[in-house]
């Protein structure tokens, strides 16, 4: 009798061991709620990390843009400085030139008014001519160009018309006479030539 019971107990305990699902208890509502909250917190943390990464990418792009702009500004400043230096080299003597041009004008007026045929004036004329030539050669050496447009078409960018004279022998708007020569420094107009211009009779 005892032997039969023990066999039955063994069968029962064996059945219980063979069915592990019977031992696993289903989670309580509190445990399910806690698990859901933990999952939600984990998802929220991942979402916050994604947002932070996106924000960092945006900040990085902004900083890159700022660096590129700063580099461009530096390059522009360097280019402007180089241009200013080049202009200073090219046109640094402009003010001095403007102050010296009246001296050239006076030498030319002296040559035009003095009697070159008179024997007593020949030495003076020769001296003035040599001084004038030396002056002009020095100006040319420093990239100064003389504008003497007699007989050329009138150019309002280089010439200043003092008066117009009817003349049927030449085309209208032709320079008949030059009151005062003009000058250019490295292509930049320093002083326009003052001229008399023809017009149709």
Overview of the molecule:
This protein is α+β, with helices and mostly antiparallel strands and 201 residues long. Among the domains are: 92-142; 145-201, Head domain of nucleotide exchange factor GrpE (Nucleotide Exchange Factor Grpe, Chain A, domain 2). 60% of the residues lie in helices and 16% in strands. It is built from four helices and six strands, in the order ααααββββββ. It has helices at 2-18, 29-91, 94-113, 122-141, and strands at residues 144-147, 159-166, 175-180, 182-185, 188-191, 193-199. The strands form two sheets. The chain has a three-stranded antiparallel sheet. It has a three-stranded mixed sheet with strand order 2-6-3, with no helix packed on it. Strand 4 (182-185) and strand 5 form a beta hairpin. Helix 3 runs antiparallel to helix 4 (122-141). The longest helix is centred in the first third of the chain and has 63 residues, at 29-91. The relative contact order is 0.08. The mean pLDDT is 82.
What is the strand and helix layout of this fold?
Blueprint: H1 2-18, H2 29-91, H3 94-113, H4 122-141, E1 144-147, E2 159-166, E3 175-180, E4 182-185, E5 188-191, E6 193-199
Parallel strand pairs: 2-6
Antiparallel strand pairs: 1-4, 3-6, 4-5
Helix pairs in contact: 3-4
